[in-house]
Description:
Layout: H1 3-6, E1 12-17, E2 21-27, E3 37-42, E4 47-51, E5 61-62, H2 82-96, E6 100-103, E7 106-109, H3 121-127, H4 139-153, H5 169-183, H6 192-197, H7 200-207, E8 208-209, E9 217-218, E10 221-228, E11 234-242, E12 249-251, E13 267-268
Antiparallel strand pairs: 1-2, 1-5, 2-3, 3-4, 6-7, 8-9, 10-11, 12-13
Helix pairs in contact: 4-5
Amino acid sequence: MSVNELFTKLTRVWVPDPDDVWKAAEITRDYKEGEAVLHLQLEDGTPLEYQVGPKANALPFLRNPDILVGENDLTALSYLHEPAVLHNLRVRFLESNNIYTYCGIVLVAINPYEQLQIYGEEVITAYSGQNMGDMDPHIFAVAEEAYKQMARDEKNQSIIVSGESGAGKTVSAKYAMRYFATVGGSSSDANVEEKVLASNPIMEAIGNAKTTRNDNSSRFGKYIQIGFSRHYHIIGANMRTYLLEKSRVVFQVSSSHCSAPCCRSTTAA
């Protein structure tokens, strides 16, 4: 399909915005390849002449049809790009209060910064034995898939939890371990989840630091191993650290000593 067929009148697009990151707009005049201006109208009715070309902006991203907005799997979208992903996540979070969304086998989570009642034993029971796409996206669905494949294939499984500081990685790992502890049981009365997590305060004391984004940001990676018996019961766990930063903030420089921007925050040793 040529550019002329895609960017026609009434086609909806996304344009970058310094405040809202992306704004929705509609093409008001058919675009012909090679033209330097794309005529748009923002959702509030404001006309916009969007400069395009080699020395200006590239053609804007196309919007997905309304029927696809709010999909629980991002791979179901017709157009998969930054504004489409952000808009879909925003709609699911604000309109449906869904913090989880799939992107294929990847689970995308939005930190709600509050406790949600979606991690109880009744929810664990509901996800136990289900296939990953049978129910709404959830960290328990990912944990169940790993547990099921471990039991079926008798091979080690890994769940990678990644994200920026404050995204909720530690809490997500906690809920995954809670799922394993519930469905896998334990060979003793010891709560493996609590024992593994009880080491966090000690590790955070020597491995965390305050950043501009997070007052208690982990400055290291954690690799948690959970051991299962032949009957798929938890028999133990251990935690290893990696990527520990070697430079640490040891004291704060007085602002009276130096007015340079680099000396107004902290000094690393």
